Amino acid sequence: MVLPAQRVVQPLAALPSSHASPHAAAHAASPGGFTPGAQAWLARLGGLRNMVRQELVSRQLDEQLRARFGVAAPLRVLDVGCGQATQALRLARRGHQVTGLDPDPATLASARQALALESPEVQHRVQLLSGSGEDCGRWFGPAAFDLVLCHGVLMYLPEPGPLLAALARILAPGGLLSVLVRNGDGLAMRPGLAGDWAGAVAALCGGDNSGDGAERPDYTNRLGLPTRADRRETLTRTLAELDVPVRAWYGVRVFTDLAPDEAPLPGEPELSALLEAEERAGRSDPYRQVAALIHLLGARP
Question: What are the structural domain ranges in the chain?
């Protein structure tokens, strides 16, 4: 299965929320967060790099859902930082009840516009809220969700711990937590392969350190935003401490991370071969260790 190319849509002004909730509070992203790059991100959704990310994450998530839940009843899903709602809508089409949460007005408007194009049955299964994942403990009780997605969010936060703790609290027993982050252990690959030797050396030395001697795998992403990478070992330890131990992990974008933002999708059979290569590399050492992104799935006992 290959995900259809995502529509590049312009955010709608004052588009009403679907299934509006009285506890959906407005939340503005911090100046150092994602909001300054939101419009540029939306314009790139139909490109090769994003398609590879979404397709691989979908395949990896489906594998773990089958292993964990089999053909169980519909799951209660929370997608934190849902963006244009690619994963949220895909899961809703499969019968799951999905809540999408995003603090950025432009991306949330785009998600609502994408939802409006779905069938009434899918629309009924999706609730889109404006807010930050750190606040979800105020809105949802303990064990409120069977599956929680946190994809591409931690890189915009100073530390991963507070958000992961909030998400672990609302994860039901037996539930899955899916976390997608920039790979701090492979941070030198992109600048090195691009011939940016100073950038590669900085990444190998621990990132753009502040001068206080602390190692921080920081970098500037393609949107021009200051962001942060995470190391698998550190996240694995954090999730274990939260009683959501990692049961599987994958690499995402081993071979296509340097593709231009505007790179179109190749035709068949090249596209299928590309995805097979990426999928195999993403589950095989040593390739997955240097992928641009890593996808960790933790399970609540």
Answer: 35-185+223-299
Q: What is the largest CA-CA distance in the chain?
A: 55
CATH no. of 35-185+223-299? 3.40.50.150
- Give 66-110 pLDDT, tens digit per residue: 999 987 779 999 999 999 999 999 999 999 999 999 999 999 999
Give the Å distances, CA to CA, from 32 to 39, 79, 82, 192, 282: 15, 22, 19, 26, 30
Report how far residue 164's alpha carbon sits from residue 134's, in angstroms, rounded to the nearest whole number.
8
**Chain-centroid distance, C-alpha 133:** 13
How far is 113 from 266, CA to CA, in rounded Å?
Answer: 27
Nearest partner of 247 among 180, 301, 167, 168, judged by Cα: 301
pLDDT at 5: 37
Residues 6+ apart with CB under 8 A from 282: 56, 60, 250, 251, 252, 254, 288, 291, 295
Q: Strand pairing of 97-102 and 126-130?
A: parallel
Mean confidence (pLDDT) of the chain: 84
Summarised one tens digit per residue, pLDDT across range 32-58 is 576 665 665 566 677 899 999 999 999
The pLDDT value given to residue 33: 72
Q: From the CA atom positions of the chain, what is the Rg in Å? A: 18
**Residue 301: other Cβ atoms inside 10 A:** 8
For 13, half-sphere exposure in the C-beta direction (CA atoms, 13 angstrom radius) is 0
- The residues pairing with 251 across neighbouring beta strands, listed in sequence order, are 294
